[in-house]
Amino acid sequence: xxxxxxxxxxxxxxxxTVFVGVFTGVADAKPLKVGITLHPYYSFVANVVGxxxxxxxxxxxxxxxxxxxxxxxxxxxxxxxxxxIVNGIGHDEWAFEIIxxxxxxxxxxxxxANSGVPLIPIAADEGEAKVVNPHxxxxxxxxxQQIYTIARELGKLDADNAGYFRKNARDYALxxxxxxxxxxxxxxxxxxxxxxxxxxxxxYGYLMQEFGLQVVAVIEPRHGVAxxxxxxxxxxxxxxxxxxxxxxxxxxxxxxxxxxxxxxxxVNMYAFSHMSDGDYSAGLFERETQANxxxxxxxxxxxxxxxxxxxxxxxxxSTNVAE
Length: 323
Ligand SMILES: [Zn+2]
Description:
The protein is of the alpha/beta class. The protein folds into 2 domains: 32-180, Rossmann fold, CATH 3.40.50; 190-307, Rossmann fold, CATH 3.40.50.1980. Helix content is 48%, strand content 11%. The chain is built from 10 helices and 8 strands.
């Protein structure tokens, strides 16, 4: 008899679970499958959705997003997505080819991370339509704008979790704001009035703008691919002509050509992360941003130290600190 009672109780519990599940919709609520195209967007989405959605990178890690050619696996992945987050302003054009090829052009909700972001114009190459700098993901404040857009749009697709996404976005934004404030404070202590800075490529335009630093020259409009010997010669000429004392370049470029360029031009080169290397992870954006800001402050410190010969208390006030 006792056995029957226990069994009946278990049956009742099971029935209640199913009953409650059906009537609250819990049994039907499948986590969203959210696609992303670039590494920073993985970090943004991971921090917004926590464990309440699945993130599917459209392409395998380890590929260069600048010259990517769509693969068969990308097609399989795009078919399983409920939505796809895109840069959409020139850094993931291949995503649109994949969507088209997989027949999802009309039935895959796209979330344009950059809708509402003030974009920096760039001179277009002849015959090209791209006229804005697409590197909005190498930034702090502009990244936060994208994080809020992503959270809002994902909330529309998953109304039950909209509040949760919103709260996570706010918490994540606060962490990024604090990171920015820390390094902004460091920069404010430095006299950068003699800074003349160039970036090898346009990838750091948003970051430099956010920190109030003027870039006097962008050496190469194209980036993400190694220069030929002849292009390197031209690059060196351009750096000399720009008359700069600090040059920022991408990690791979700086590590391979730093010495050559310094010897030829006398300019110190500092390496920034473009945030497209390594595995996809929730922590990548913060880690790489911190490294970039550390590099930025170190570079400014080198200019400040090499030009400030009088103690700060006796120095003539600069009219143009941190231009
Ligand atoms: Zn790029």
